[in-house]
Amino acid sequence: MTSVVTAARQEPVGVHGPGSRSSKWLAIGLFILGAGAAAVSLLGPLVFDVIRYHVSAGATNQVVGGDVAGLLLMAPVSGIAGILVWRRHRAGSVLALGPAAYALYMYSQLALGNDVDRYPGNSEQFFPLFLGLLVLSGAIAIGAWSVTSRSDLPVPPSSVRRIFGWFAVIVAAFLVLGLHLPTLLDVSAGQPGPEYVSDPVVFWLVKLMDLGLVTPALLAVGFGLVARKGWAIKPMYAAAGWIALLGSSVAGMALMMQLTSDPAATVANSVAFGLFAVIGLAVALAVYRPLFGRN
């Protein structure tokens, strides 16, 4: 983290021209996204409990774990990316992709994963906040992707690309075979687990997003890197930040479920998600490190 902040203070080495309006607006958007992420975390059950979600106690514990990651990782990374973009550093728009993708994934679940007929709460009153963060993160993702030039991206060593590629494939396989398929089979057999019984809306929403969006994207990037395809370099940078943030968030959720003796918690999942988070952060640092060298 220190090296990132130091780089933000150095002379810009990116491709954005002096006074680039797109850079300024992208930076401002990142600052707002970071502030919004911090606000959602602070207003939720983690601190002030102003936002009360229509979910079970177990799902609320998961929200708390996600809020910790949002406050300690999502918000600071968005701010650092904003500073780098403002200074026209080449790493800025690349770092922006991770928080933007994470926000699209997480805040759509917080906005839609509520069972208003079953659990008390008031999260629907904060729908404009979630909607604003979704629109903003989508705009940041498009803007950051469009201003990130493939020629500006250093190609990490083949060992880093290969490790990240297989890591992405393994994570996708775990999501399908280790996490979602067993519970889907239980539901199909008429023996749903406590996670489904307590929060069916959250259950199906997460299944839809993980199996329909996350897994295909990870497999495409992973196999592209393993096969040494040039097109996989740019999405690799986006996936690295997203995996690091999501892995930390899911690990926090699993830890909270374990600490509160949630019936849906398992030691195996807690260990797996913890390793997922640690490896994801380490790989992301290895991927991003060349961005802060000489251009």
Structure characterization notes:
The protein is an all-alpha fold and 295 residues long. The protein has one domain (2-292). The chain is built from ten helices and no strands. The protein has helices at 2-9, 21-43, 57-86, 90-112, 127-147, 158-188, 194-198, 200-226, 233-259, 267-288. Helix 3 (57-86) runs antiparallel to helix 4 and helix 6 packs antiparallel against helix 8 (200-226). The chain starts with a helix and ends in a 7-residue tail after the last helix.
Radius of gyration, in Å, reads 19 Å
Mean pLDDT: 91
Main sheet record: none
> Element order, helices and strands?
HHHHHHHHHH
Total of helices:
10
Structural class: mainly alpha
Helix content: over 70%
Low-confidence parts: 1-19
Strand content: under 5%
The outline comes out as globular
What is the number of strand segments? 0
Give the termini separation.
20 Å
Number of domains: 1
Topology (SSEs and partners):
Blueprint: H1 2-9, H2 21-43, H3 57-86, H4 90-112, H5 127-147, H6 158-188, H7 194-198, H8 200-226, H9 233-259, H10 267-288
Helix pairs in contact: 2-3, 2-4, 2-5, 3-4, 3-9, 4-5, 4-9, 6-8, 6-10, 8-9, 9-10
Please give a quick description of this structure:
With 295 residues, the protein is an all-alpha fold.
